[in-house]
Amino acid sequence: MVKKEMIAMLLAGGQGSRLGVLTTRMAKPAVPFGGKYRIIDFPLSNCINSGIDTVGVLTQYQPLRLNTHIGIGIPWDLDRNIGGVTILPPFERNINTDWYTGTANAIYQNIEYMESYNPDYVLILSGDHIYKMDYEVMLDYHKSNKAAVTIAAMPVPVEEAKRFGIVITDEERRITEFEEKPDHPHGNFASMGIYIFNWKVLKEALIANAEQPNLDFGKHVIPYCHEKDMRLFAYEYNSYWKDVGTLNSYWEANMELIDIIPEFNLYEEYWKIYTKCETLPPQYLAAGSEIEGSIIGEGCEIYGKVYHSVIGCDVHIGPNTVVRDSIIMNKSRLGSDCEFNKTIVAENSLIGNNVRTGTGDEVENETDPAIYTNGLVTIAEHTILPDGISLGKNSVISGVFEKEDFKDRMLAPGKTLIKAGEML
Fold it and tell me: How much of the chain exceeds pLDDT 90, in percent?
């Protein structure tokens, strides 16, 4: 039997509904980030930078784009004969066939995969966070405490604590209490959803709780280990970590990359972020174009002006077009004489000439006020917009449109326009 000290299980099946139309056709970890990356590149790069060469990626919702991106793991040096990266979708069994119904249920359904490596430790990761972490340091901490479970945790603002699992520890960082998303949290030391388990402990906890509906780490597995008086420790993490689960946090995380001194640095030589790259020509900046405080991906042609924005790869920005505080994703085409303000344009979109975004007052979105907020304009992938259209703040649009689809050539602030059949 193959023997690995620690393997990683990367949960990447999330729908990411709070990202709205960005995740209609792909799982959240496949969403582009930072001009050339996808969200899942960050935990995968952390794994190989930490010396972990065996990673199971658990997929479920809209997995095609994610599977294509990961392939056999070449960009991350995870194309190994023994170990490497393995895509683990739900599969049919003789009995008890089911979709993954919770984070821990997904791991439980892959006990055989983990068993095949006979690991000492199993690292559980989420596929939708932006951060750099050396998991080897966390493993050393786990071993030094003779822990059964170690949970990576960090302080969060008190007002946000109820969104997380909250850990209460003693002076040695041993966990004395664990509350999953409490209404009235007793602290602000929050679980990051990163766990190291002794393999025997994880296997016992999963089997003992297998019948729980929607089997979950925070609700079932961690409380089980705590009730059994196992040694649970918190590993404090104090560097950059961002849950990009909402449109606004996703936009903010992209904008933070282009701060004068970015808190999250993509350019460190010793901790590279790897990704699958197409072979593209260099960027072309035309005479009269302007770029200020922005990331510009490979293969771009810029004829207009770009300020404080993140531009993906193979993007065309037409003459006299101004892009501000925006994210323009791969292979999108923006016409001439346009103005884009605080806008997310998803991949493969085609925008006509004289288009204006971010116009008018900030009005609550009519269909999803909790998703489309903070004045952002969201344009879904493969959207085609005709010339002369304006899109108001907190609006969202998806589909292939003609001028006749718009009253007064505008989509008012807070409006949603999704063409029937476009989102299938």
Answer: 69
User: How many Cβ atoms from other residues are within 10 Å of residue 141's Cβ?
Assistant: 18
Residue 54 is inside which H or E element, if any? Answer: strand 54-58
Residue 165 half-sphere exposure toward CB, CA atoms < 13 A: 22
Are 295 and 258 in contact by the 8 Å Cβ rule? The answer is: yes
CB 78 within 8 A of CB 44: yes
Q: Can you give the pLDDT at residue 97? A: 54
Closest Cα partner for 415 from 394, 401, 399, 384? 394
**Overall pTM surpassing 0.90 (yes/no):** yes
Residue 7 to residue 2: CA distance in whole angstroms: 12
Give the residue among 7, 11, 82, 83 at the shortest CA–CA distance from 50. 7
Kindly write down the DSSP assignment for every residue of 93-145, as one continuous string. -SS------SHHHHHHTTHHHHHTT--SEEEEEESSEEE---HHHHHHHHHHT
- Rounded to the nearest angstrom, the gap between the alpha carbon of residue 115 and the centroid of all alpha carbons in its chain is 28
Closest CA to 397 of 372, 417, 375, 414: 417
Q: Would you state the structure tokens that stand for residue 405, as one six-digit string?
A: 């689809």
The residues, ordered by sequence, that sit 6+ positions from 21 with a Cβ below 8 Å of its Cβ are 346, 378, 380, 381, 396, 398, 418, 423
Give the highest mean pLDDT range of 55-59, 91-95, 277-281, 411-415: 411-415
C-beta of residue 60 within 8 angstroms of C-beta of residue 100: yes
Q: What is the pLDDT of residues 216-225, one digit of tens each?
A: 898 899 999 9
Q: CA nearest 36: which of 408, 395, 313?
A: 313
Q: Round the CA-based radius of gyration of the chain to a whole number and report it.
A: 23
pLDDT in tens, 266-316: 888 889 999 998 889 999 999 999 999 999 999 999 999 999 999 999 999
